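Dear support,

I submitted the protein below through the web form. The confirmation email said the job was done, but the results page showed an empty box. After a refresh the structure appeared. I'm attaching both so you can tell me whether what I see now is the final result or a partial one.
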Amino acid sequence: MPSVITANDPIGWVILAVVGAIASGINAVAGGGSLISFPTIIALGVPDIAANATNSAALWPGSLSSAFGFAERLREAKRDLTLLLPPTIVGAIVGSFGLLLTPEKVFKIAVPILILFATILLAVQPKIKAWASQNTFRLGRTYGAIIQFFVAVYGGYFGAGMGILMLAYLGLLLDGDIHEQNALKAWLGVAINFVATAIFLWKGKVLLVPGAAMLVGSVMGGYGAARMSLRVDANKLRWGIVVFGMVMSVVFGSRVMAR
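What the results page shows now:
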């Protein structure tokens, strides 16, 4: 998408900082922040794969601060973290390198599908949470590790909606309450984002200055969301993002069809 304002000029940096703050705040309150930030980076003239890598790297600190908020509840799920961390790291490596090995033309085709998938996950998020917390069926630990590997592959490749995927199966794996599930989900998400960011930086796919601008906004947004969360209707916000995600899937699908 050609743009007069690009990710490489000061106005673009300001836009990215604001969008980073908004996306991080949305992630803290309702989830789905990448559905806002990722299309914005592309709209500023960044190629799709570099936009995805930069988005993952810039929003990572926000997920880290969120994970620290669950530190106390993580103590009760340490055994599960020990089980799930290895497949998480391996899966994130596979997904990240999978992205880097994907031709730009192929990823452009995948983008509207991935956005639509993440949007649908966000739309059904409350039902997934309710089902996972009420279901008495329990997954075996081996099956849990296998599922987490594939979730981490998706997270390393694209990432939007991976937290919802994790919450869906963790409810079938853990005996603890939703807070323990959220704690484990948050720290596994940090691991995925850390691995992906390290690989994308190593391969030079992260735009450093635009990414730094977005990162600063992300940190500010994560902090501000803690204060804002009590005043925001998370359900209305979630549905607003769902509508935006649907529009973006159509926009990016039209971009593919126009080529």
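Response: this is the final, complete result; the empty box was a page-load delay. The chain has one domain: 10-258.
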